[in-house]
Amino acid sequence: MDVASEHSTDHDAHHGPAKGFTRWVYTTNHKDIGTMYLWLAFAMFLIGGSMAMVIRAELFQPGLQLVQPGFFNQMTTMHGLIMVFGAVMPAFVGLANWLIPMMIGAPDMALPRMNNLSFWILPFAFGLLLLTLFMDGGGPNFGWTFYAPLSTQYAPPSVTFFIFSIHLMGLSSIMGAINVIATIINMRAPGMTLMKMPLFVWTWLITAFLLLAAMPVLAGVVTMMLMDINFGTSYFSAAGGGDPVLFQHLFWFFGHPEVYIMILPAFGIISHIVPAFSRKRLFGYSSMVYATASIAILSFMVWAHHMFTVGLPLAGELFFMYATMMIAVPTGVKVFNWISTMFRGSLTLETPMLFAIAFIVLFTIGGFSGLMLAISPADFQYQDTYFVVAHFHYVLVPGAIFSIIAAAYFWLPKWCGRMYDEKLGKIHFWWSFVGLNLTFFPMHFVGLAGMPRRIPDYALQFADFNMISSIGAFIFGTAQLFFLYIVVKCILTGEKAPACPWEGAEGLEWTLPSPAPYHSFTVPPKFED
Amino acid sequence: MDARTQRSLVWLVLLPVAMFGFGFALVPLYDVFCRVTGLNGKVNTSPLAMPVSAKVDLSRSINIQFVTQNNANMPWTFQPLSTEMEIHPGADSRAVFRVKNVTDHPMSAQAIPSISPAEAAQYFHKIQCFCFNQQHLAARESLDMPVIFYVDPELPDYIHTITLGYTLFDVTKLAARAN
Ligand SMILES: [Cu+2]
User: N or C end of chain A: which has fewer CB within 10 A?
Assistant: First the structure.
């Protein structure tokens, strides 16, 4: 049973986790920290999700029913902030913590104490952010993009807390990224060259560089806001010689790489799951690596596609339009590779594979609507409509979120040593799939017909589609409570899982027993390709 | 922590620190970029010496339009004395704007210029402008403010109309803080 001892010679490795609450506060173990990240992300996902439920309940019918417009604005803003910074990003960091050391044959992350710090900053950051909802004047109400001067001159007094919490999350992400890079660069098992690394490791390495380059710019932007609000500078205030458009340039210089921070690790996950359930090697490994790297580089050259209507010069409109469309090329390579991997494979459709296939199909739909938005003359019509909302939800929900759920099902046996209930997993998939498409597909139509985003009320002709969206949202929302039930049931009473429960899965993590011992790979494993 | 990790840590910390600095460096860079290229209708907000060689091009005339607006809750009245004029490229021209502080207390204001079409911004030169300074007016005081400018004869010939817009900002608090 205790196979851990096979891998460990020094006596330190024999002691298990400490007992009680302090285990979690003081832990430097990558598995403990990964677990905490994942549970925090899941809690945030439910909180952000309930805000979405408030939004959809208000939009169920035209007119104002349930909430005041001011509160509605706080809900849309907080929903975006919580989902981006609280759910998706920590979930990926949690997966990185759990999986990267096991995938590269390392005993832990390179900087375990910093790892502890970078997690424990987060509950305080989000605590502060959520507390703003109860302060005088309410929480942030200026949209998750917090454009100046909405977020400076016209912001509620709680904006300073918002700025501080963004600083904290940024710090946490940067420390997490430093840790990931230091681990991958220095701690790979002998024989694992860069081009033999599993793709989840590769995509996370590139994501970590994006984090290191983009998050400090965000920290700079909120620092400038802080100074404009409290210290009389005029970065974004035209009265003092500043420029509000500058805010948008700086924000999106961070913001576009940020969207790839939220999708590149997902590409990695899908590149593990699709081959496993196709019982084939991944098609085009090296092209996957190069495609990921080129997406990352391009992501710093396209930011103004969010700003086509601010009055860019013609040359700018054209440059950002073509540069944006170029991203479709490496993304297309990836989709092609996944489909080629499935082609003539012996496919089985377990829950992780269902989510992975839905990822490929629905993410591609989101990619195509992104291409439509990239056409700058057309964007003048789409800007700030529900079409944009449909687009980024199609890349984030069946993109980032589905990949995280797929990863959870795929590696859950490794994490807790038990299998989830396959039948319930499939029900969860179809429940989510139907809810998701009901919610977001009609948004394309109302958007093209001219319904603006971020409004609590709308013209009567949009009523039917909005009602469908709201019903879909309630279906999707309850499906995620069901997911919580499935996970808890798996942890408590799931069947015992073998070391490798998936016939076609490859990788060092599957050579460890399930559940993975508290200390693994204290002696580097032999890596053979 | 082994020596390799320590070495990586050095550049892994330097990179985000440098990027934080880069974010701030983008502020002047962005400004310089807009000013040099004349994009975004940004115009020089410091006086320009009249070049000696500027010849007046009597063969064309340009229609200059003036628009004014108040930012947010700025209570002053702010109007050009005439809303448009015909000028020849290269010739000195003068326009006057009238402001009045309609409130019962002293206030300070700053006008921010903008030019459209944006392509014309780099050909529009101000020799003297009230937008180079703040205006401080006592309660109920009014003031006529001139702008003296010329349009570069190099202005592309498909541009026939240039609009000079000013937005008036209340900077009473900023001015008080500066003193
Ligand atoms: Cu973008």
Answer: N
Query: Looking at beta carbons, which residues of chain A come within 8 Å of B4?
Result: 185-186
Which chain A residue has its CA at the smallest distance from B22's CA? A217
> Which of B16, B27, B41 is opposite residue A212, by nearest beta carbon?
B16
- Summarised one tens digit per residue, pLDDT across range B32-69 is 877 666 565 565 555 565 554 567 888 888 999 999 98
Of A153, A154, A92, A84, give the one whose Cα is nearest residue A125: A84
d(CA A475, CA A433): 10
Annotated catalytic residue within A37, A98, A202, A260: A260
ipTM at complex level:
0.87
Q: Which residues contact A195 (CB under 8 A, 6 or more apart)?
A: A285, A286, A289
How many angstroms separate the most distant Cα atoms in chain B?
Answer: 78
Query: For residue A32, which of A518, A419, A488 has the smallest C-alpha distance?
Result: A518
For domain A32-511, the CATH class is mainly alpha
Q: Record the tokens describing residue B21, joined without a space.
A: 């600095």
Instruction: Determine the distance separating the centroid of ligand 1 and the alpha carbon of A300, expressed in angstroms.
Output: 9
pLDDT in tens, B95-110: 999 999 999 999 999 8
Residue A52 contacts residue A473 (beta carbons within 8 Å): yes
Angle at A88 between CA A87 and CA A91, to 5 degrees: 80
| B44-178 to CATH, choices 3.40.50.10860, 3.40.50.300, 2.40.50.140, 2.60.370.10 | 2.60.370.10
**SS3 call for B142:** strand
Tell me how many degrees the CA angle A296-A297-A301 measures, rounded to the nearest 5: 115
Q: Is B30 on the interface with A (CB under 8 A)?
A: yes
Give the distance (Å) from ligand 1 centre to CA of residue A261. Answer: 12
Contact A186 B17 (CB under 8 A): no
Q: Please give the Cα distance from A352 to A344 (Å, whole number).
A: 19
Minimal Cα–Cα distance from B53 to chain A, Å?
A: 30
Active site annotation includes A23: no
Q: Is B87 on the interface with A (CB under 8 A)?
A: no
List strand residue ranges (DSSP E) for B33-171, in order: 62-70, 77-80, 84-87, 93-100, 107-116, 124-129, 135-137, 142-151, 161-170
Q: Omega of the bond prior to A515 within 30 degrees of 0, cis?
A: yes
Catalytic residue at A303? no
What are the boundaries of each domain within chain B?
A: 3-37, 44-178
What angle, rounded to 10 degrees, do the helices at A264-278 and A402-416 form?
60
Which of A153, A154, A217 is most worth mutating to test chain B (most B CB atoms within 10 A of its CB)? A217
Question: Cα Rg for chain B, rounded, in angstroms?
Answer: 22
Q: Which two tokens stand for residue A471?
A: 């019903």
Query: pTM of the prediction?
Result: 0.88
